[in-house]
Every structure is written in C-alpha cells, then in structure tokens.
Amino acid sequence: MELIVDENKMRALLKDTLIEMMKDRRDIFHKIVIESIEDIGLANAIKAGRKNKFVNESRIANIAK
Asked: Domain tally for the chain?
C-alpha cells in the first residue's frame, strides 16, 4: 500500500504542525531555534577560519554563543 500526498496538502500539513508546535510546545521550538543560531555561528566561524589562519577552539566557542 502506497501513500500519496499532494504537495499543497503536504505544505499545509507542515505549516499547521509548525504553528501548533510554536504555540503548544514553545520549549521545544525555542531549543530548535537556539541550536540553529549556534550552528550558523559555528559555520560562520569555520568560514572565517578558512579565509585566514586556523581559528582556535575557544574563539569558535565565543562566536557561537
């Protein structure tokens, strides 16, 4: 048995799920946002390190905060 979902229905379902999570489970959504920001900071630190000399670990940790 195969389940086929229309793209528009899938988008609506995903949107509804995210909105519900933001409203009902703010703690989980908050953790996801914080981790995403930390990941972006780490990626930026890695890019900066690649342009110049290697960046030490404590500098990366400070940028990611």
From this structure: 1
